[in-house]
Amino acid sequence: MSDTKKTGRLLIAGTGSGCGKTSIVCGLLRAYQKRGLALAACKCGPDYIDPLFHEKVLGIPSENLDLFFHEPGMQKQLLARHSRGADLVVAEGVMGYYDGMSLESPKGSTSEIASVLQMPVALVVPCRGMGHSVLALLKGYLEYETAGQIRAVILNGITGRTYEKLAPVLEQWLRENGHAVRLAGYLPKIADAELKSRHLGLILPEEVEALQEKLDLLAGQAEETLDLELLLQIAEEAPDLETGEQEAGEEEGTEKPKLRIAAAKDEAFCFYYKDNLELLRQLGCEIVPFSPLHDAVLPDGIDGLILAGGYPELYAKELSENVSMRESVLQSLKGGLPCLAECGGFLYLKEELEGEDGMMYPMTGFLKGRGYRTHTLGRFGYLTLEPKEELLFLKRGETIRGHEFHYWDCTENGDRCLAVKPDGQRSWECMEEKQQVFAGFAHISYDSNPAFAKRFVGCCLERREKGNAGDDMGK
């Protein structure tokens, strides 16, 4: 990294899901922001929603840290690029500290990410219903780890009176057992700052009533009961990241085309990886946001379309009622507009979608089939897509990585690829390719096969050069 500015790194991990990591991270980010620090934020794993909360605090995109999507060297480069110019980067862990891609090992876990990226860790321990048992829990977490990344402990859901009695006991035990780990304070339960959840995790930031007030409450509490100076000191002890001369995705000496890619971004479609959009920008694309909910038609002069995941089932009625947009998308795709559609975007291309109210609503109808509620988590977790034949953006013999997480399914999910779980013990057919549209439930990491993104951009460029960009089909 050419920047000489020292950037501190701190990873907030937890003993499990629901232990309060997001609330603590948001409180820390807001508190440090009020102190005038330049900040960056990250989320371990493929989650989309927690980064949206980070963004609401900072006003800048949060990035995913993922060792299934990215080789260690690339992940270091991506983190270096993301944190360039920041005083501090705060990362939020995923699930429990040692939970990874399978039950058999911690591979892909927060602990592995912390080790690879040399990020000091503050472990969040939820204390509800516990007293002295916290010591036994800590003993397991600290002595199971071999990399020594855990440097601090934050107690969550505990009163000030209890903390005053428990803290000296914990500190004495840490000293007597030779652990170079410090208590960094506590966060009590704050009913007015609670962040509620849904089946994919937290509800979206836009749905949280008085979100900014909640964030300010968390920041105020962090200033009062967390040791912000200690956490900052620990973060600044992180060694410099060793990266290559050229950062990920950067190619010199190549003139890029100037293309406009429309990207659905509203309450219904909001799940994007920052790295995916950044790669498209590096390939010469301008990302043009639009709303399938609120806009009448697709933006003018576009060369490609991305329909991301999100919660279209919550807005099925509204999406259906926006007939002009549905027709604009349908006619543009029929006219040859290249498109990538994932999960919720895939459902939007279907003929019908069952809303949360149980009613069926018409969608664009470009792809056959209907989306419906299952009430259970279907195909879940990391996967590798293997094309069963030569495809437009993915060639035979290649692979690209992604993940699925959805409670809605579809009567026709496609059969152009095979989705294979990381352990190779389970696979299923998926993905549709129709004309220049590649769509399915899988959320894809472009960085796991940059040629995929380059072919998509190439298809958009070819269409522009043929004079088809900006057609007013359906407008």
Task: Explain the layout of strands and helices.
Blueprint: E1 8-14, H1 21-34, E2 39-44, H2 49-58, E3 63-65, H3 72-82, E4 88-92, H4 110-116, E5 121-126, H5 133-144, E6 150-156, H6 160-176, E7 182-187, E8 197-198, E9 201-202, H7 211-225, H8 228-236, E10 259-264, E11 269-271, H9 274-282, E12 285-290, E13 304-307, E14 309-310, H10 316-321, H11 323-334, E15 339-342, H12 344-348, E16 352-354, E17 360-362, E18 370-373, E19 381-387, E20 400-404, E21 408-410, E22 417-420, E23 427-430, E24 432-434, E25 437-440, E26 443-444, H13 450-465
Parallel strand pairs: 1-4, 1-5, 2-3, 2-4, 5-6, 6-7, 10-12, 10-13, 13-15, 15-25, 16-18
Antiparallel strand pairs: 8-9, 11-14, 16-17, 18-21, 19-20, 19-22, 20-26, 22-23, 24-25
The portion of residues assigned to helices is 25-40%
Taken as a percent bin, the fraction of beta residues is 15-25%
- What is the end-to-end distance? 47 Å
Taking the sheet with the most strands, its summary is: 7 strands, parallel
CATH class of the largest domain: Alpha Beta
CATH architecture descriptor name of the largest domain: 3-Layer(aba) Sandwich
Looking at this structure, what is the CATH superfamily of the largest domain?
P-loop containing nucleotide triphosphate hydrolases
In spatial order, strands of the major sheet run 3-2-4-1-5-6-7
What structural class do the secondary elements suggest? alpha/beta
The averaged pLDDT comes out at: 90
**What is the strand tally?**
26
Assembly level:
single chain
